[in-house]
Structures are given as C-alpha cells and as structure tokens.
Backbone:
DNA sequence: ATAAAGTATCACGTAACGTTAGAGTCAACA
DNA sequence: TGTTGACTCTAACGTTACGTGATACTTTAT
C-alpha cells in the first residue's frame, strides 16, 4: 500500500507517515523504483501498535524504544494496551459523572467541593508514569515473579543465569565511582534486563534503586553478592536515570 | 488560591497556568501586592471548562474564542461536553474490542481485515469537525429551531430583527463581488450570528452555503430578500471560509 | 498526451508547553 | 532575627509532532 491509502485507512496524514519515516519510527522496507513508500501488512500492524501507544499518551521517542526493543512482545503489549484503555474509560466515566454533578451544581441542586469538580482530570502528567509509580512498591516484583513462575525449567535456568551474571558483574565493580563508564555500562545491562520483565520508566528505575537501600529485605538480598552493592546500585541507577531522560 | 495549589488540584503544571495567562485564556483577576497570581472559585470553574474542551481536542485558540464569546452558555457547553465524552467512550469501547479481536487474530483464531484492524482509530482530524459535518444537513437547522422555540416572545422578536437585518443588508450588496470587502464584512456578520446559534466550523459554513443553492427550499426562502441572494451568499461564504482557515 | 492526482524531498512555521536562569517573596525554624 | 527552603515572578530559548508550502518527479485517468 502507498502512503495515502494507509493514511486514509487509519485516519492520519501523509505527513505523519513521512514524519514517522524520518524519525525511524516506521520505515517502510519496500519502495517502488521511483522511491514511493510501500507499506506491507506487517508494517500496518506495527502502525496499529504505534497508534495504540499514542492514544495512551506515549511520546514517539518512547514508542520507538519500546517497539524496536528486541524484547518487545506484541502479545504482552496488546494486553497492556487493553488494560490501559480500560483505565482510560474509567477516567472518562468519572469525567462524565463529574459533568453530571456540575450540571446539577449549576442548577443549584447540589453542593460541590473543589476536589469533586476535577475528578477524572488528575492525569498527573502521564497515565503510564502513574502505572510505573504503582509498580514501585511490590507490583513490579509480583509481576516479575508471575512471569518467572510461568517459565519452563530451561527458561528459568537461563533467566537465573543472566540475572546472577549481571549481579556478579555489578558486585565486581562496586568500588568504582557510580558515574564511571564501567558502572554505567553495568547498570544499563540491569535496566535492559528489567525492561524485558516489566516496563520501567527511568523514574521508576531510579525509585527502585532507592528502594534497594530503604527496604532492608532488598538490601540484604542484594548485599549477598557483595557488601555495599545495594548502595552502589542505587547511586549508579540514579545517575543512569538522570543522564538518560 | 495560588498557582501551585491550583496546579496540584487539577493535575497540570504551573507553567501551563502561566501559559494560559500569557495567551489570555485564563487571566486571574486578583494578585497579591507582590504579583502572585490568585485564582478565585469562578476562575477554577472556567479552568474546568477549559480542560473539558482540551480533553475533546480543541486547540487553545478555539477554546479562548468559545469561552470568551458573549454568547457562551455554560449550561449548553456542559451538555455538549457530556455528549462528546460519551462519543469518545464509544470510540474507546471500539478500540478495546479491536484489541480483543487483534489478540485473537494473533493467536490465529480469527481472520481480520485491514479495515477492522483500525476500527475506533478513524478520528479523521477532529471529532468536533465530524460533529460539525453531521450538522450540515438538517441538524443545524433543527437545533437552531429548537433554540428559537425555547425563546420568549421578546427574545424571539430581537432574534428575528437581527436575522432580517443581516439578510436585508446582504440583499442590498448582492451585486458586489463575493470577494469584495463589503461582501466579506456582511458575510462575517452572518457567520458570527450562526455561531451564536449552533457551532459552525468553517467547512460546515461553506457546506451550508452550498446547500443554499442545492436545496431549492432554501433558495426560495433566501431569494425572497432579493433575486440571486442565495448564489451570492454561497460564493461569499466559500470565500470567507477559505480565507479564514 | 495532457491534465489531475499522488509522491518525494527540503525547509521553515506552529502549538503547547518544558526547561533553565536570575531574582524576588514568604512562612518557618534555629 | 537571620537564614533556609519552598514558592513565585518574568524572560527567553528548547522541544515535540507534526502543518504548510515550494518545487520537482511519477502515475493514473480521460
């Protein structure tokens, strides 16, 4: 399919497709001899994913990261999309009921607090970030665990090997400065690994690091690999998060 | 209330409030001696309206026009908001069912056409424009009539006087060129008048003009004010629409 | 075969803020 | 009562996600 066909099908502009090509978000692999972009069926599916993420308020840069990640799992993404769309609908319902209340309020039928007037509006920045923050505490761990529990024995072994490998590596370099290249490379591995499990924003990642120190259960587990590793990781994770946002 | 209180309450940034002040969308009437912005309760309500319109995808410029219009009716706006939010929820439901289908499709359980893959995504530009387009045919007229029927006798008289005045003026200048200043000024009056009734986009306005000629019932009515007025209005309306978008 | 419609690549424009930067303000605490 | 620390101001440049031409080539329709 050529640009305009695609654009009309999904209700976006040709310029938008050009733009997605420019920034490397959706580059059609095929072109005619004359240089016309040709979109395959699979590229249409990717476009669908992109639009889902967009509807959920993700910036294009993030979308690119997500879908071009080798660990990107279409099925998982679809499930997440569904979940977030449902949440969005809940918010919409709240807004509708807020309007109904406001209409009554305008008629002088009921009282309304300032807080009530804005129910459903508190998208504090980004719904995804909100999700991420919810995952800070235990959710992320729970979800990771659930994922691990669903693995076959072989998969689990591979997983644990990789996990331990990263930790051992970090333990080995824990006396370096958290800003050093070697530390940042090690922590990047950790970040990438985590993002193959759950979905961590940089803020969430930073918060997670803080938790390694604040929550003694974590500290204890982590420091088994080497005394002071938790503190080192927290610092390196903070540096990593600040540098990459 | 001071900026940050407001910002935190509604979940937007302080910068956003500053911005709304800069562009004249929401200027707090009160300030402390030291120049701190102070938001009153009524300004909070205006902010609520602004955020509703924003959620519906209106650009700030349009929002400013709407809420600062002397004919802006809070009650009517709330009703419209409600309607559009419900529509948006319907679209969300479609997207959710599209996802469900896609998940099944991914499992190889069902077939899916390209069109199906994008159901719920066809926000061809702006949901508001869609509404406007729906109103082209008769809806606008119906709604205007409904509004007129709800008027008191005095109001209706004023309304008819203004209406007739505009038409008589247009009839008087119908031999000028549709591009002339005098024609464009006359047609602007008509556009403004209509927008005090319903809500016409420029495209809708242009389409309405075309209808004046296509639909003989309209032509007949309009030409009572002067032979050829319908055609003149259609042309002038098209020019006006094209120039102002 | 010639216009109309589609496509391509620059490249500048725009909307709605984000993000410093530098400086004044205010309540609270030592 | 001096000094933080949280908040506020204005000013101005940066950013995201395209919009909007301008100019030139290609394909489709008549």
Residues:
């Amino acid at each position: 399919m050529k640009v305009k066909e695609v654009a009309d099908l999904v209700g976006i502009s040709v310029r938008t497709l050009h733009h997605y090509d420019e920034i490397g978000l959706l580059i059609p692999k095929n072109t005619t001899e004359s240089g016309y972009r040709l979109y395959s069926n699979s590229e249409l599916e990717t476009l669908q994913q992109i639009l889902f993420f967009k509807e959920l308020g993700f910036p294009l840069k993030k979308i690119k990261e997500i879908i071009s990640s080798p660990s990107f799992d279409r099925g998982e993404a679809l499930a997440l999309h569904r979940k977030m769309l449902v949440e969005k609908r809940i918010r919409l319902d709240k807004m509708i009921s807020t309007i109904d209340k406001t209409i009554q309020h305008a008629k002088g039928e009921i009282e309304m607090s300032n807080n009530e007037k804005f129910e459903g509006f508190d998208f504090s920045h980004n719904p995804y970030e909100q999700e991420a923050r919810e995952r800070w505490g235990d959710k992320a761990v729970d979800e990771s665990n659930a994922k691990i529990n669903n693995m076959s024995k072989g998969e689990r072994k591979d997983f644990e090997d990789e996990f331990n490998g990263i930790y051992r590596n970090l333990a080995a370099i824990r006396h370096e400065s958290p800003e050093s290249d070697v530390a940042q490379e090690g922590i990047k591995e950790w970040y990438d690994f985590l993002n193959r499990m759950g979905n961590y924003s940089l803020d969430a990642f930073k918060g997670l690091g803080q938790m390694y120190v604040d929550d003694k259960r974590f500290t204890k587990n982590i420091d088994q690999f080497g005394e002071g590793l938790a503190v080192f990781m927290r610092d390196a994770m903070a540096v990593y998060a600040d540098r990459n946002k």
Summary: Chain A touches chain B through 38 residues (CB under 8 Å). Residues 13, 15-16, 18-19, 23, 32, 34-36, 59-61 of chain A lie near DNA strand D (CB under 10 Å from a C1'). Confidence is low (pLDDT under 50) at residues 122-150 of chain A. Chain A has twelve helices and two strands.
